[in-house]
Structures are given as C-alpha cells and as structure tokens.
User: Which sequence fits this backbone?
C-alpha cells in the first residue's frame, strides 16, 4: 500500500473520530435544555400544584389526575347525588367531617367541597385502611351490585370499606376515616388547581 493511500486512510479515520466526539459533546450540551423543557414529573411528585380543566366532564363521571404521586378524583355530582348526602348521617362514621386532618377547613361540610361549587368533589382516591384504591359505584340500588338500598359512592374491593359520594366512610368497615380531600382552588368555573388553597392564590 502506498504512503499516499495510508495518509488518506488516516485522515478519513481522524475525520470520523472528530465528528463522533463532536456529536457526543453536542448531545451533552443539548441535554440540559431538553430536560428543562419536559413536563416536570418530579415537580408534580414533590407536590407542585396540578391544573385541571374539567369543562368536558359530565355529571356522574369520575376524572382522575395525579398529584404527589397519588390519584385525585374529580366528580361533578348531580342534584340527585347531592340530595342523598344529607340523608346518610346515621350510616356514617364521621358524617360531619370532624377529623380535621382529612380535609381543608373549607371542605369540612356535608358535601366536603367548596361552598361556591358544592357539586364538585375533589378527593384522594386511596382507601384510608391499607392504601388500596376504591372503585366507583355511582349506580344506586340493585344496579350497583351493592344492595337494594345502596345510594351510590365508592367501594374498596380489598377489604370491603364503603364511602359515600362525598368520600365519607361508612360505619363497621375497616377504613377508619373519610377519604382525604387535598388542597384545591378554582381558577375559573371549569378549572381547578389541585395542591393549593384558595387563600394562597390571592395576590
């Protein structure tokens, strides 16, 4: 092989090596920018507020979002669902939400929601017994497979705990307390910010 061909081969190899190193370097340089533009899952897991648009949510339909790594349920309750809440006190362990740690003070009422939007329910979908996820049982009576007198609510299939449409726990079930209500505030008639109290949003 001539010296000229050897030199050409070396130049080609050096060019390829230099290009490869440059590409790797550019990749490292771009990476921080790419990471900074991605949605911050870490921020959400750390407790950053989550904005939710429920403009297309129909009555009696469960919308699930994630906040702090937990499922948060948002439900637009119908008038019939709301009317039943006041009739269940005798069946519930904590009908008046007296365990203050389970909800913010503004949700310490029968509906366990804000007075300005009482039909909107926001709660953490984790059973207070052993952390299972209850399932929705919004149908009433025989259609629910929960008994003829079932008024609609949530059922935990792990150990049988039951909750009403406000997340209030029934008596004589394993779960000791109501489902938690996270901090939340309304940004508009169709938007909620989960993870922030109303007073925190004031200028």
Assistant:
């Amino acid at each position: 092989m001539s010296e000229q061909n050897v030199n050409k081969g070396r130049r080609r190899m050096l060019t390829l090596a230099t290009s490869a190193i440059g590409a790797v370097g550019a990749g490292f340089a771009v990476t921080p920018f790419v990471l900074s533009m991605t949605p911050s899952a870490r921020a959400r897991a750390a407790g950053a507020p989550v904005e939710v648009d429920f403009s297309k949510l129909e009555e009696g339909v469960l919308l699930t979002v994630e906040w702090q790594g937990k499922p948060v349920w948002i439900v637009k309750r119908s008038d019939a669902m709301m009317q039943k809440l006041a009739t269940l006190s005798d069946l519930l362990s904590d009908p008046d939400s007296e365990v203050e740690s389970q909800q913010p003070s503004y949700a310490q009422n029968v509906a366990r929601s804000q007075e300005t939007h009482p039909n909107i329910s926001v709660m953490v979908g984790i059973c207070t017994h052993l952390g299972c996820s209850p399932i929705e049982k919004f149908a009433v009576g025989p259609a629910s497979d929960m008994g003829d007198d079932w008024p609609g609510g949530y059922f935990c299939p792990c150990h049988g705990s039951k909750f009403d449409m406000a997340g209030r726990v029934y008596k004589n079930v394993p779960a000791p307390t109501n489902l938690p209500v996270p901090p939340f505030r309304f940004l508009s008639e169709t938007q909620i910010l989960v993870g922030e109290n109303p007073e925190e949003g004031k200028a």
